Amino acid sequence: QQQVKQSPQSLIVQKGGISIINCAYENTAFDYFPWYQQFPGKGPALLIAIRPDVSEKKEGRFTISFNKSAKQFSLHIMDSQPGDSATYFCAASITNSGYALNFGKGTSLLVTP
Amino acid sequence: NAGVTQTPKFQVLKTGQSMTLQCAQDMNHNSMYWYRQDPGMGLRLIYYSASEGTTDKGEVPNGYNVSRLNKREFSLRLESAAPSQTSVYFCASSPRGWNEQFFGPGTRLTVL
Question: What confidence tens digit (pLDDT) does each residue in A96-107 have?
Answer without folding.
Answer: 766 788 999 999
